[in-house]
Design a protein that fits this description.
The chain is of the alpha/beta class. The chain has 34 helices and 28 strands.
């Protein structure tokens, strides 16, 4: 059989809310048994049933808003379903993936659930039956709801084989994975003790423990104590889990299921069937019983059941071996979780293999001598047992009351050599982006606080691997937080600040679309020795892309610009080196961003920056642009020395008289309405500068070697004009600073590049055209020093855009790149996060699971049935005319808009929402959780409240069901049409 990896776990058991709490309970030998909560039933009313058992705290809590379930539907849902949904979310997170990433995939869901107590409690009064109760009480819906809410399209089934249900579910899930029916599977079970009825049955059968405690294999064993429980594991084929780098807790080597057949009673255990299922499981797993170190037994603590199970275990495991086979049963800690019993035992076994220590079995201090464990080659674990190095094997048994038996064989996770890239640990101070997302601003703050406390419990150290895990797991929800950090101390401080209600970062504004990004490529004058050295040290992606650009240039330049840049060589200011160096930086920065999933909607290059812009847009290949840039720099280096450039904080009109008085001076760049650059002889520029300064105009001499973009460039332009240029139409829109507009069908050929040398840079009008064409939400400067963003800010051309720079000067490191990615993630981008991290940081780190809201509770059955009761219905599945409706006061509808008020009232009645929640902007599916049945009910409610509208077909309504407001507008139009 193909091995199956357990890659994710979540659970909640009595006294153990979560995986770590469960393990802690087991290791300290604790138990979760306590008195029956008054919420379930009054223990004194049922003296035949023990007043104790295992009960999950807050089993009535359900974050219905998170799962887009209406309050009315949540109240009608079986609590088993309500427990499973958040458990599924957390288990998938624990597997190292954002649950939303699996939407639309053939992920399978296999859930063990025993009986149908909720249906019996809520559906027995036929006068109160509703569609919501019908769907809410179906056992089959336990799995189907997970598939529906997570949009999984693989097999989805509930399994009821009584107490073995959840282990049978795991067996079926493994089979589905092996046949290729699904690639990921959620498997497990759930049990809630809703009433004393089954306890009464156990008592009448003589199977109930008087104190409500299971005491497996103990001399004091006297029967079963019932308990709650929910647990799910995420399963994948072992080879897939290894290929995806997932953490593997343990490996399911094989499993088997059989039936007692016609034995000594339909509810009596059968030794021979139990032996056969163990033999079959070991055969399928390719192991022999002597290799199995321990067995997590069914172990209910009934005298007959324990005796039969030990006889079967002894018959299989009583073979020559170095040490006896250890056995135990988690039911001593939890009680009998019935439909979840198998998954409780399996999760215990998986954790034992993962931690390489097997917890002691509770009540083992008074071992039942009649079981003859020693004679049968077994020992009851009275203290924790450490597992030796190498592979360890274990078995898990679960037997159903009706004779369906299951046994699973598990092995410890394989120890594999590190991949080549991961052999070297990542830098301990590497920067990453830590992400958290949630469904509401309040939920975001709640989860920020939870992550802060979880990280604070870790030893202080580097945070890059934690950040990378958060990018894979915590990024799928609408309200987003992201922060660049280097170590866990810095991360804890940032999370705590953001969790503070007074901090704006924690509000995590919800992006409603993807960001529209434009790249602005800096030109000559921004270079300096050692530029981007800090980014080169921190970013593996930038190192790789700078090396690619350097290789393309070296073929023509004959030397390495990368070495020149990083060594701090002053030659970087000479045109023959400055221009290739800036081109390399621009290309490397742009390619680093695009490799991170940041694709520009348009590009703009300032002078020399147009070459890297052309490469990014696809108008030139990297090799072709590299050749041209080297030729351009060499031609300019051959020009006679002299000349310079002067930036002036004024418009061209104010300069006209001064330029006319100074022959040889020209406008070199029109960067903004009051941002102009003049080029010409140095003496003339000095006189112009003094005159402007005397008028109070800001002036600055630019650090350049020549009077670029002036007639003095004519020899270089002529040399470039004769160059053959292999170019093509750009794939990304280009705002041309040569023409001052968007390129239409022009090619960036030799003529373009020659004119570009001596003609002025029309930055202002080019940027205006770019903004008009693509309406960018973010402008990113691509260059080693901040220049163009300052110009854009002064000019006011893109006032609404956020300005970002991944390498804004000499002190820049990888933090600024990370901050750029973080800002775009907050703005709606889903980056390709892996490119941000070195291979040594691409490891799985455990994160605190999602913290759901505990504000909503659903339990009281009588109130539920009353709440869910509709009025007599006219026809079809919808509800009829409601009783007294809420007034406009307290709703989201103004009193002078009767149609909107009627829609709000109808939504309130059908969904059970408080009126203030039903605002005009609320969307029916995404925000209110309406499904097709509710839409039918809504239709009937609207017709009853607005009789003048008459009958409205669902087909007519569908296009208007975008939001509460759009439906009201549609009905308004219908009223007007029918009045006319």
């Amino acid at each position: 059989m193909g091995d199956i990896a357990v890659v994710g776990i979540d659970c909640a058991f009595p006294g153990a809310a979560g995986v770590q709490a469960y393990w802690d309970l087991l290791m300290r030998g604790g138990d979760g048994i306590g008195p029956v909560p008054a919420q379930r039933w009054e223990a004194g009313d049922f003296p035949a049933v023990s007043g104790s058992g295992g009960f999950i705290d807050d089993a009535d809590v359900f974050d219905s808003d998170f799962f887009s379930v209406t309050p009315r539907e949540a109240a009608a849902m079986d609590p088993h379903h309500r427990l499973l949904l958040p458990c599924a979310w957390r288990a998938l997170e624990d597997s190292g993936r954002a649950p939303g990433d699996l939407a639309g995939t053939e992920t399978g869901v296999f859930v063990g659930v025993m009986g149908g107590e909720w249906g019996r409690l809520t559906m027995s009064d036929l006068a109160r039956v509703t569609p919501l109760l019908g769907a809410g009480s179906s056992a089959g819906m336990a799995a189907n709801r997970i598939s529906y809410h997570f949009n999984f399209t693989g097999p989805s089934l509930a399994v009821d084989t009584a107490c073995s249900s959840s282990l049978v579910a795991v067996h079926l899930a493994a089979g589905s994975l092996r046949t290729g029916e699904c690639d990921t599977a959620l498997a497990g079970g759930v049990n809630i003790v809703l009433s004393p009825s089954l306890g009464m049955v156990y008592g009448q059968l003589g199977l109930a423990a008087s104190d409500g405690r299971c005491k497996p294999f103990s001399a004091d064993a006297d029967g079963i104590g019932r308990s709650d429980g929910v647990g799910l594991v995420v399963l994948r084929r072992l080879e897939d889990a290894l290929a995806d780098g997932q953490r593997i807790y343990a490996v399911l080597r094989g499993s088997a299921v059989n039936q007692d057949g016609r034995s000594n009673g339909v509810i009596a255990p059968n030794r021979w069937s139990q032996q056969r299922v163990l033999d079959s499981a070991y055969r399928r797993a390719g192991v022999t019983p002597d290799q199995v170190a321990f067995v997590e037994a069914h172990g209910t603590g009934t005298v007959l059941g324990d005796a039969i199970e030990c006889a079967a275990l002894g018959a299989v495991h009583g073979v020559p071996r170095e040490t006896p086979c250890a056995i135990g049963s988690v039911k001593g800690n939890l009680g009998h979780t019935e439909g979840a019993a198998g998954i409780a035992g399996l999760i215990k076994t998986v954790l034992a293999l993962h931690h390489r220590i097997v917890p002691a079995s509770l009540f083992a201090d008074r071992e039942n001598p009649r079981l003859r464990l020693g004679e049968r080659g077994m020992r009851l674990l009275k203290s924790p047992m450490r597992l030796p190095r190498g592979e360890s094997l274990a078995g898990v048994s679960s037997f159903g009351m009706g004779g369906t038996n299951a046994h699973a064989v598990l092995g410890s996770a394989p120890r594999l050599p590190l991949a080549a890239g991961a052999r070297t640990a990542g830098a301990p101070d590497a920067v990453g982006v830590f992400t958290v997302s949630a469904d509401t601003p309040e939920a975001l703050r709640r989860n920020l606080a939870a992550q802060a406390e979880a990280v604070a419990r870790r030893p202080r150290g580097g945070a890059a691997a934690l950040c990378r895990s958060s990018n894979r797991i915590k990024t799928g929800l609408p309200h987003r937080f992201a922060v660049p950090v280097r170590d866990t101390g810095e991360l804890v401080a940032a999370l705590r600040r953001a969790a503070d209600p007074q901090d704006a970062a924690g509000s995590g504004g919800r992006p409603w679309g993807r960001p529209v990004v434009a790249f602005l490529f800096t030109g000559q004058g921004s270079e300096f020795p050692g530029m981007t050295a800090g980014l080169h040290r921190d970013s593996p992606a930038y190192r790789r892309h700078l090396a690619e650009a350097d290789e393309a240039l070296a073929a023509h330049l004959g030397t390495s610009v990368r070495e020149l840049i990083l060594s701090g060589d002053e030659r970087v200011h000479r045109p023959e080196f400055a221009q290739p160096a800036l081109f390399a930086v621009g290309c490397a920065l742009a390619r680093t961003l695009t490799s991170l999933g940041i694709a520009p909607a348009a590009v703009l290059g300032h002078s020399l920056g147009e070459y890297a812009a052309a490469v990014t847009a696809g108008a030139l290949s990297l090799d072709e642009a590299a050749r041209l840039v080297v030729r351009r720099g060499a031609l300019m280096a051959e020009l006679p020395a002299g000349g310079g450039m002067l930036a002036a904080g004024t418009g061209p009109e104010a300069l006209a008289e001064l330029l006319a008085a100074e022959p040889g001076t020209v406008l070199a760049a029109l960067n903004g309405p009051a941002d102009t650059v003049v080029s010409g002889p140095l003496e003339a520029l000095e006189r112009i500068g003094r005159a402007l300064a005397g008028r109070g105009v800001r002036v600055k001499q630019l650090p350049v070697s020549h009077a670029f973009h002036s007639p003095l460039m004519a020899p270089a332009a002529a040399g470039l004009r004769t160059e053959p240029v292999r170019c093509r139409q750009p794939a990304v829109p280009v705002a041309s600073t040569r023409h001052g507009r968007m390129l239409r069908h022009e090619l960036m050929d030799a003529g373009y590049w020659a004119d570009q040398i001596e003609e002025p840079v029309l930055m202002d009008t080019a940027l205006g055209a770019l903004v008009a064409d693509v309406a960018p939400t973010h402008l990113i400067e691509i260059g080693p020093r901040g220049t163009l963003l300052q110009i854009a800010a002064r000019g006011g051309r893109a006032a609404a855009a956020e300005l970002l720079h991944p390498a804004p000067g000499a002190g820049a490191t990888g933090r600024e790149l990370a901050a750029t990615v973080a800002a775009l993630y907050r703005g709606g981008l889903d980056p390709l996060w892996e490119e941000l991290y070195e291979p040594g940081h691409r490891v799985v780190e455990a994160l605190s699971p999602y913290v759901f809201s505990s504000a909503q509770r659903h339990w009281d059955r009588q109130a539920l049935v009353h709440t869910a009761q509709p009025q007599p219905q006219p026809a079809g599945p919808g509800a009829g005319p409601p009783p007294a409706a809420p007034s406009a006061a307290g709703t989201g509808a103004p009193a002078d808009d009767p149609v909107l008020l009627a829609v709000v009232q109808a939504v309130t009645e059908v969904g059970g929402y408080p009126p203030e929640r039903v605002v005009r902007e609320a969307r029916f599916h995404e925000d209110l959780g309406f499904d097709s049945v509710m839409i039918m009910q809504l239709k009937n409610q609207v017709e009853a409240r607005l009789p003048r509208v008459g009958e409205v077909s669902v087909q007519e309504m569908l296009p208007a069901l975008r939001s509460v407001g759009s439906l009201a507008a549609f009905l308004d139009d219908m009223l007007l049409a029918r009045s006319a």
